[in-house]
Write a structure and sequence with these properties.
Elements lengths: L34 E6 L2 E4 L2 H9 L5 E2 L13 H6 L9 E3 H17 L4 H11 L5 E4 L5 E4 L33 H10 L14 H12 L4 E2 L2 E3 L15 H8 L3 E9 L11 H4 L2 E9 L2 E3 L3 E3 L1 H11 L2 E5 L2 E2 L2 H11 L3 H13 L2 E5 L7 E5 L9 E8 L13 H13 L3 E8 L19 E7 L4 H10 L1
Parallel strand pairs: 1-13, 4-9, 17-18
Antiparallel strand pairs: 1-2, 2-12, 3-12, 5-6, 7-8, 8-11, 9-10, 13-14, 15-16, 16-17, 18-19
């Protein structure tokens, strides 16, 4: 058997981040924290933003459910943020079309909850009406605007227009730092201008509507439609106060809208359309349908964090799961979990960063340091065999399928690796029911390379 030649990993040309740590642990124990995750629909989800940052930045575990890899999804439109970058606005900016999509999503959920069209229209009109929020000018002066309007960024007038508030009387200018406190106080005092739900009809109708809405769960498949319900305090709830406050508090966005300006004095009927000036403005509204970015861990990543590093606690229902229970559950959810996890554990211990290799038709992709720094070096297929390299293979490969898979891997500048996990022939299924069986497992790596006849002849001619 020919000895495989090691090829150094191919580094990416553009790297926009620094390398922190291979694992989410600290040697001194100062920064060590136990993160929390939960099993939802056979998936392991991390919701706490601090835990997400800890797990992904230190080891690149998991991926964002709304992002390509790093969980950095934002509702804000990057082009609009660049366009209004001189406004000193620390709020998401979206287009009017995108905002209407969120309104339609909220409307569909209210329809599923049994509300009639009239009630839905009133609720959404009251919830999405323009709000008055304070802003800072470019020179730091404090301003207040009823509709948060602002002239276009290319105009000379860069001040937010001042309009009197007709709903809340005289507006009190709040600084950006203490605005949240003012909002919480207004909610506690029952100010209808700040309360997320439209209040219409008699008091009895109001109480019945609010009670009915409060009993409806707002969270569905990772999306949250803000309908004004206050979460009931539950002593058994595992989520921290930071998560609850983030998901229950309304989200405020700036919607870019257009309005027609005044006509010039010398306008005539023939040039009316030419002299119409469309001014862009930012209108502050509540987002009726919030979308949250969570971190999704593969079963192998989640078990490695629990078993090998001890920095993750996984919940299902009301209580955390033990290591043995996780081994059992993951094996039921994914029949080949034991094989793929052994390979994952082995390569992680060797310093590689394994990720899912589904897009290349394999089990794992191996990265040096992490995906932001290097391209994947190897595509790995894991198989569990006995001492004689026999056993029921998960993926029996013919020469034709192996040749095609190898060609696909080579075209992606990677190498195909067969990872054989060798267990003793006398190992019983009972021993395999616990992760302690890995102590008896041996690993054999085999790199598959394509034989090129012309290259072989040229090498022989040199001799």
């Amino acid at each position: 058997m020919a000895e495989a030649v090691f090829h150094p990993p191919r580094r990416k040309r553009r790297v926009f981040e620094s390398y922190e740590s291979p694992f989410p642990v600290d040697v001194g124990g100062k920064d060590f924290r136990i993160c929390q995750a939960e099993i939802i629909n056979n998936n392991v989800i991390v919701r706490n933003p601090e835990d997400i940052e800890q797990l992904y930045n230190k080891g690149y575990f998991g991926k964002g459910i709304l992002s390509r890899s790093r969980p950095v999804y934002s509702i804000s439109d990057p082009s609009l943020v660049t366009k209004w970058q001189g406004a000193n606005i620390n709020m998401p900016i979206i287009t009017s079309k995108k905002y209407q999509c969120h309104v339609q999503w909220a409307k569909s959920i209210l329809q599923e909850q049994g509300f009639d069209d009239c009630s839905i229209t009133k609720i959404l009109e009251n919830y999405t009406k323009p709000l008055e929020l304070p802003f800072l000018e470019e020179d730091g002066a404090e301003q207040t605007s009823n509709s948060c309007n602002r002239m276009g960024p290319n105009t000379e007038n860069t001040e937010l227009c001042r309009q009197s508030s007709t709903d809340t009387g005289n507006a009190v200018a709040l600084s950006c730092e203490n605005w949240n406190e003012g909002y919480k106080k207004a909610c506690l005092e029952g100010d209808p201008a700040f309360y997320p739900v439209a209040v219409c009809g008699s008091k009895e109708q109001e109480q019945s509507d609010l009670k009915e809405i409060a009993e409806v769960s707002c969270q569905k498949h990772g999306f949250l439609m803000q309908c004004g319900c206050k979460a009931k305090e539950n002593t058994e709830q595992r989520s921290s106060e930071a998560i609850k406050s983030k998901e229950c508090a309304p989200e405020y966005v700036l919607v870019q809208e257009e309005e027609e300006g005044d006509l010039c004095p010398e306008d005539d009927s023939a040039h009316v359309q030419e002299n119409l000036v469309k001014k862009e403005k930012l209108v502050c509204r509540r987002n009726p349908f919030r979308i949250f970015e969570y971190l999704q861990l593969t079963l192998e990543e989640a078990f490695f964090l629990v078993y090998a590093l001890g920095c993750l606690s996984i919940y299902y229902g009301e209580e955390p799961l033990t290591i043995l229970k996780l081994w059992e559950i993951f094996s039921e959810v994914k029949p080949n979990f034991k094989t793929t996890y052994m390979a994952y554990h082995y390569f992680r211990s060797k310093g590689w960063v394994p990720k899912v290799g589904l897009k290349y038709g394999t089990d794992l992709l191996l990265y040096r340091k992490g995906p932001p720094f290097y391209h994947a070096s190897y595509s790995v297929i894991a198989e569990l065999v006995d001492d004689n390299f026999e056993g029921p293979l998960r993926r029996p490969l013919s020469w034709k399928s192996l040749s095609g898979l190898n060609r696909t891997t080579v075209n992606a500048s990677k190498e195909l690796m067969l990872c054989y996990l060798i267990r003793p022939s006398d190992m019983s299924e009972k021993e395999m029911s616990t992760p302690e069986c890995m102590k008896k497992i041996k690993v054999q790596e085999l790199i598959v390379s394509r034989w090129v006849s012309s290259r072989e002849r040229s090498e022989q001619d040199e001799f």
